[in-house]
Amino acid sequence: MITVLYVDDEPDLLEIGKIFLEETGDFSVTTVDSASAAFDLLKTQHFDAIISDYQMPETDGLEFLKQVRLLYKELPFILFTGKGREDIVILALNLGADFYLQKGGDPKSQYAELAHKIRQAAGKKQAEQALIRSQAYLHQIFSSVKAGIMIIDYATHEIVDVNPAGTDLIGLSREQIIGNTCHKFICPAEEGLCPITDLHKSIDNSERVLITADGKKVPVIKYVTRINLEGRECLLETFIDNRERKQAEEDLLQKTEDLHAAYEELTATEEELRSQYDKLVISEQNLRESEEKFRALVEQSLDGTIITDFSGTVRFVNPRTSRRNSAKKLSMILQK
């Protein structure tokens, strides 16, 4: 439903106009007989369009239009004029009237034309408001997203726009970045060797390099999409700072290398211990064999052998020593 404020100092015309317009089913019409009464309503109510007569006492249609444009700049305004007032029509259009309609003729045709103009004016206003809301919504996303976003002209490689996250990464203001070629910041490739426009590559989730204002190269993850922006072929480039991820990868690689080195050192130590153990086993075996040979030699010796420790305690005697001691004891017994 389109709400209309109809202003005219002739009550009969207001009544006829209200009837014709509301019979279409598209309109809800509120009528007043003066500009001052109209402003009183505009302070408290919303209207999608205004229809105003030109010749009215106190404030005519043109003066009313001036005041409306000062206070309600975008409100659609249609001027209802008498015949032969082309000069008034020109003034009205210059002052910002959306349409005009001359009075007279068949009422049915006249109000059908008026209804058409109201729909046009209100529809245009609604479309403009929707576009403004859409642009504001997109601008909010563009400005608040944490990833860097840059719009680049496809043919010239000129930077058309960049969001705050992008300016932060590059280290320059938006005004300092816009107008430069993308090769200066977002891509280190030489002119004529653009991966997208010249080499026709696809860049999606790719590791690339961003050049900052002080010449540093920052690793980024980049996405590039070709778009049409109001008839202009552009590249929409999105890039995410990849320094933390790269540092984490390097740290993980270093830890892996350190772990591998420690493992190799541990393996070498294990091999050394195993070698020492094998040598100890061989030494122990050689010692046992030497001991067995010594024992066999001593036990089979014709001489008596006694082994004591430093305290004089006997630790070993060979069989020959035992037999001699037994014979000596027997001789001493016989002598008795």
Could you characterize the architecture of this molecule?
The protein is of the alpha/beta class and 336 residues long. It has four domains: 2-141, Rossmann fold; 146-241, Beta-Lactamase (2-Layer Sandwich), CATH 3.30.450.20; 244-300; 306-335. Helix content is 49%, strand content 22%. The protein has nine helices and twelve strands. The protein has helices at 11-23, 35-42, 61-71, 86-95, 107-144, 164-170, 174-177, 243-299, 319-335, and strands spanning 2-7, 27-32, 49-53, 77-81, 99-102, 148-153, 159-162, 204-211, 217-229, 232-241, 306-308, 314-317. The N and C termini lie far apart (155 Å). The mean pLDDT is 81.
- Coarse morphology: rod-shaped
- Strands side by side in the biggest sheet: 2-1-3-4-5
* Strand-residue proportion: 15-25%
CATH class of the largest domain: Alpha Beta
Total DSSP E strands: 12
CATH superfamily of the largest domain: Response regulator
The number of domains: 4
Order of helices and strands: EHEHEHEHEHEEHHEEEHEEH
Uncertain residue ranges? none
Residues in helices, as a percent range: 40-55%
Question: What value does the average pLDDT take?
Answer: 81
What's the helix count? 9
The value of Rg in angstroms is 53 Å
Instruction: Report the CATH topology name of the largest domain.
Output: Rossmann fold
What CATH architecture label of the largest domain applies? 3-Layer(aba) Sandwich
Largest sheet: 5 strands, parallel
